[in-house]
Design brief:
It holds the Pfam family Dus. By secondary structure, the chain is an alpha/beta fold. The strands form two sheets. Strands 1-2-3-4-5-6-7-8 form an eight-stranded parallel barrel, surrounded by seven helices. A two-stranded antiparallel sheet has the order 9-10. Helix 6 links the parallel strand 3 and strand 4. The N and C termini lie far apart (91 Å).
Length: 424
């Protein structure tokens, strides 16, 4: 009891915690069944400096031993392998949230409340972004953790269409006790095929209008390593969080090696092998084994389009597949194919990354060989996301230009008076 009291008394505020964990700037986002232990370990090897766990369901974590064992193992939060670490929960009941958080507070640096999940399961379960209108409940959830945990509480939010409402929302979350604030610059409705661009300008607006000592993380639009510094500079954020960008290319965080394509856009055979070796190291993690198939599909995505036989092998894997099965049917065949690709006498010419011209969104798209990890642009009606974004921005700019032109074509008040006089 005395130890708990002492820990509570010495609990760090946001800026103190940020300093203690090394001022991390590159963060693996909390993702359901995707930011589990093995993926965090791999991402740290490629430059991530802070990781969040997947979103855990607080009530299940607190009450179901099976769920807890499936989601969490002894190596999660290990001081040598898996820190700094923030554990994220979704919840709508303060008591269950606190009970769950107390089970992990000694194995993490902070506990985060998910206020951003936009998926149907969050609507059905009444958590994540579907609490955005219930400010009293959010305040109580955060305050309960703030007042009773030995580690700080943090929060991740989405934005409202209105800037002023979003600012008041963010202030409320901070006033309730959140020590880090992560802002995903998308509306609740922006998900799946409607994802679209995150709004960096509204994130910047929040940064400029919240207390200057707020530890502030930005989330959204990270495709390439260069986007991290571009985002931090535009928003003046303390750090940048990546979800999908990291899932398809862990090298997105390797900003210290921006000109080294093997580190920033690693070959798929190398990533597959490294990830597989991490899985073996974390073999006690049920969550890591369950997530393995999904991760393999993502990191090998551009490659599998050209080698459908290997894609079929991954698809055939199930809970009964052993690590030996994975190595013989997936890892080694990928390595064999990439070795053959690099035996091509013209490989130096083919193995190049071409950066396009600057786009309206501020960055530039890259053309990357299919045997290297790269962003994924989700197609809708046959049109990929990068092309939709570009076309939408062109239409927006054209609309603004036309508006200005119409305004310029309108007569001034003096001109109107002259015309009226002539008509009279």
């Amino acid at each position: 009891m005395l130890t708990t009291v002492l820990k509570m008394a010495s609990k760090l505020n946001g800026r103190e915690l940020f300093e203690k964990i090394g001022k991390p700037t590159k963060i693996v986002a909390p993702m359901v069944d995707q930011s589990e232990l093995a993926w965090r370990v791999l991402s740290r090897q490629y430059g991530a400096t802070l990781c969040y766990t997947p979103m855990f369901h607080a009530k299940l974590f607190a009450t179901s031993e099976k769920y807890r064992k499936d989601m969490w193992c002894e190596l999660d939060g290990d001081s040598d392998l898996d820190r700094p670490l923030v554990v994220q929960f979704c919840a709508n009941d303060p008591e269950y949230l606190l009970a769950a958080a107390k089970l992990v507070q000694d194995k993490c640096d902070a506990v985060d409340l998910n206020l951003g999940c936009p998926q149907g399961i969050a609507r059905k379960g009444h958590y994540g972004s579907f609490l955005m209108e219930e400010w009293d409940l959010i305040r109580k959830l955060i305050r309960t953790l703030h007042d009773n945990l030995t580690v700080p509480v943090t929060a991740k939010i989405r934005v409202f269409p209105e800037r002023e409402k979003t600012l008041e929302y963010a202030k409320m979350v901070l006033d309730a006790g959140a020590q880090f604030l992560t802002v995903h610059g998308r509306l609740r409705e922006q998900k799946g095929q409607k994802t679209g661009l995150a709004d960096w300008d509204i994130i910047k607006y929040l940064r400029e209008n919240l207390p200057t000592d707020t530890v502030f993380f930005a989330n959204g639009n990270i495709l390439y390593p260069e986007d991290i510094s571009r985002c931090m500079e535009h928003i003046n954020a303390d750090a940048v969080m990546s979800a999908e960008g990291n899932l398809y290319n862990p090298g997105v965080f390797n900003t210290d090696y921006i000109d080294d394509k093997d580190k920033t856009f690693p070959k798929v055979d190398k990533i597959a092998r490294e990830y597989f070796e991490v899985i073996k190291k974390c073999n006690g993690s049920h969550a890591s084994r369950i997530a393995m198939k999904s991760h393999m599909f993502k990191i090998l995505r551009p490659f599998l389009h050209h080698h459908t036989d290997i894609r079929s092998q991954i698809a055939s894997m199930n809970a009964k597949s052993t690590l030996d099965d994975w190595e013989e049917k997936v890892i080694k065949p990928v390595e064999k194919v990439v070795t053959e690709i690099y035996a091509d006498p013209s490989i130096q010419e083919k193995d190049t990354i071409v950066t396009g011209s600057q786009e309206l969104w501020g960055g530039a798209y890259k053309t990357i060989p299919y045997w290297r990890c790269q962003p994924y642009f989700r197609p809708v009606n046959g049109v990929t996301g990068d092309k939709r974004v570009t076309e939408n921005l062109k239409e927006k700019v054209a609309g603004l230009d036309n508006s200005k032109k119409r305004k310029a074509d309108q007569p001034s008040s003096e001109e109107s008076k002259i015309k009226e006089t002539k008509l009279e």
